[in-house]
Amino acid sequence: MPFALCFLLLAVCQSACNVTKHLDEAKGERLLVKNSIELKSAKRLKANERTPLLYELTAQYKQIPNSRPLIFFRAPVNLWLFYWSLNKKARFPRWINRKLAEPPTIFDEVLTQRTASNFQNYLQQHGYFNAKCDYEKKEKGKYKTEIKYLIELGPLHTIEGVQYESRDTQVLQILREQAGKSLLKRGEPMAGRIFDAEKARITNELRDRGYAYFAPNFVEFEGDSVGNRTTVTTQILTPGDSLMHQTYTIGNIEVLSNVRPDLQMAIRRDTNINGIFFRSGTTDFDVKPSQLYKTIAIKPLWPYRQSDFDNTIRHMNELGVFRFVSVKPQQDSVDPRKINVEILT
């Protein structure tokens, strides 16, 4: 194999410049050989600002030129290997085609426009609300094209401060007490991903405090801007005409092994440990109830906490015994402030 590779490299040296002969002239095909980005900003960007921004933007390219691992070759070696190995049935060419070869990157104006649109949308979602992106096309010879993306950043809009509003005074108190955990920090960009993450954080915080049915759609953000700085108001909506979100406690807990409730299978074995009912559709349990009990973070009469449900699923899966574990919460039909739990294994 090493000898074959050396021989192949010698062949590349002789022939790599001929890859353009495979292009379809009738269709006007050209190779995309270079992408570059030119950032323009009224405020000079520091290296620790400019470098990560350029790195993140490169992930938005819709077309990437063929790589040139051996820079002293005029043409991309991996592209030449693609044409050399194409449709060959011998083992070595097929290995080359699978491991090293790259199909040609044929310049596509539509994909270039999409890349420019991606850049603009990405920047606007990361606090550069007035960002604009265009591109310049430079044709090199008869078969090659270079693209330079021209980006006007505009000012970066940042968070000046955060305040909370809600008709639900209990939720409002919790959020104010936990304000230090907020992901919306003074001086941070007004980035959409941060606001999405803050919605998730608030939802998780409240679902761990008994608010079983709290969801991200109850969280809204409003902004009051002065210049490029925005004071953000985090508003917690209430369900329907209610002034408050309901908190819940845990009611009955059933652990069903080898039982399909929808098929009304008979219970052949059951036991109770500290208010948690263990039932089996066979004459014995796959795992002793005393061992299962240790994996269950949910307890009767405790406040509803989403993390207890997540930990229960994780701990039961870690036993390595069950093909699946399902933990189903269901509102009690008699006392609607209670959540009953059915665990299926």
How is this fold's topology laid out?
Elements (H helix, E strand, L loop, with lengths): L1 H14 L15 E10 L6 H12 L18 H9 L5 H9 L9 H16 L7 E9 L3 E9 L5 E9 L2 H9 L14 H16 L11 E8 L2 E8 L12 E9 L11 E5 L2 E5 L8 H7 L10 H13 L7 E6 L6 E7 L1
Parallel strand pairs: 1-3, 4-6, 7-9, 7-11
Antiparallel strand pairs: 2-3, 5-6, 8-9, 10-11
Helix pairs in contact: 3-4
Intertermini distance = 52 Å
The helix-strand sequence is HEHHHHEEEHHEEEEEHHEE
- Relative helix content: 25-40%
The spatial strand order of the largest sheet comes to 8-9-7-11-10
CATH class of the largest domain: Alpha Beta
Kindly report the name of the CATH homologous superfamily of the largest domain.
Answer: membrane protein fhac
Number of strands: 11
The largest pleated sheet is described as: 5 strands, mixed
Uncertain stretches? 10-16
Would you tell me the structural class of the helices and strands? Answer: alpha/beta
Number of domains: 3
- How large is the count of helical segments? 9
Could you explain the architecture of this structure?
- This protein has 345 residues and is an alpha/beta fold.
- The protein has 3 domains: 2-152, membrane protein fhac (Ubiquitin-like (UB roll)); 160-236, Ubiquitin-like (UB roll); 249-344, Ubiquitin-like (UB roll) (Roll), CATH 3.10.20.
- The chain has helices at 2-15, 47-58, 77-85, 91-99, 109-124, 169-177, 192-207, 289-295, 306-318; strands at residues 31-40, 132-140, 144-152, 158-166, 219-226, 229-236, 249-257, 269-273, 276-280, 326-331, 338-344.
- The strands form 3 sheets. The chain has a 5-stranded mixed sheet, with helices on one face. A 3-stranded mixed sheet has the order 1-3-2, with helices on one face.
- The longest helix is centred in the middle third of the chain and has 16 residues, at 109-124.
- The chain is flat and about 80 Å long.
- The two termini are 52 Å apart.
